[in-house]
Amino acid sequence: MDTDAGLHALPITVDYGGQDLSITPAVVETERGLVLFDVGPADSGAVDAIETHLRALEYDLTDIWLVVLTHHDGDHAGALATLLERTDAVVAAHRDETPYVTGERDPIKGSGDDRYPPVSLDIELTGGVRVPTLAGPFEVVETPGHAPGHISLYFPDGGLLVAGDALVADGPGDGADQLSGPKPEFTPEMERALESAAALAELDVEHTLCYHGGYVPAGADRIREIAETDRH
Predict the structure, then answer these.
(1) pTM for the complete prediction?
(2) Helix (H) or strand (E) run with residue 208 in it
(3) Cα(67)–Cα(92) distance, rounded to whole angstroms?
């Protein structure tokens, strides 16, 4: 599924905690190769599923030169070590996510008994960083709340937001109502997460790609509704 020129959603279903989980990593083409947004859980077959998608796009895993993690949760970062066994990709995440990714701290929503293999972080991101791609540059937007250093990726040229878990797309129907705010049970700082949603609503977002739920033809107006409704 292509959500914008040069950007491809990669919907996959993986095993996570003994249950099927539908997730949507994504790749965007650049002059250097592919940038991958999030990976999937450890020991879930996520890397093989991503590889299958990439072959359909006439790419391979080795074409991934950069992995951008929206945050450190196991369903996003757990399979990163497996991916790095098969690629030479550079890894980037927000600096506040660093200790969780590298193993200095256990994931906030996990434990030391079941944490995923830690990996080194090559680039620490902050808000405002821009990366050129064939879909136009994407900008790192700090969206903390769901995780301390959660980030979303904004493509201003196409009005596209790659939301990570700052938003989810699991509402009824197939329109804007599909888009909703982060799940309170998985969001340690819900008020902060809603402040992040309000900040996203100030961007010229026309459509959104969520890690949980995939693509939604909804943007700033719907995001503003979410932020205002959930905060009252």
Answers:
(1) 0.94
(2) strand 207-210
(3) 6
